[in-house]
């Protein structure tokens, strides 16, 4: 189960993405700024998808992160035995 802070950050990111994309819509009707508005809408959407989907997936593949099995701890085991000095 994901933490509440993750869901909150994801929700805020989605709302700000939607607000930014909707803010550029009035510019699309302009002859001069129309193409720039479409570029900004696409760039905002593409950057958000890359940040929220592609980069975490690439990180998990690169560092070979495996999903946590239900009922197991995600933290590594703590050694309680003393470590001999060399």
Question: Can I get a quick summary?
Answer:
This protein has helices spanning 4-24, 34-62. 58% of the residues lie in helices and 0% in strands.
Describe this structure in words.
With 86 residues, the protein is an all-alpha fold. It has helices at residues 4-24, 34-62. Helix 1 (4-24) runs antiparallel to helix 2. The radius of gyration is 22 Å and the shape is elongated.
H/E element order: HH
Please outline the major beta sheet. Answer: none
Could you tell me the strand content as a percent range?
A: under 5%
SS-based structural class?
Answer: mainly alpha
Structural key phrases:
elongated, 0% strand, mainly alpha, 86 residues, 2 helices
What is the fold's blueprint, element by element?
Layout: H1 4-24, H2 34-62
């Amino acid at each position: 189960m994901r933490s509440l802070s993750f869901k909150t950050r994801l929700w805020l990111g989605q709302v700000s993405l939607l607000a930014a994309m909707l803010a550029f819509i009035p510019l699309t009707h302009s002859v001069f700024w129309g193409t720039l508005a479409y570029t900004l809408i696409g760039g905002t959407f593409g950057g958000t998808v890359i940040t929220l989907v592609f980069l975490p997936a690439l990180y998990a593949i690169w560092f070979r992160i495996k999903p946590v099995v239900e009922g197991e701890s995600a933290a590594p085991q703590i050694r309680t035995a003393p470590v001999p000095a060399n």
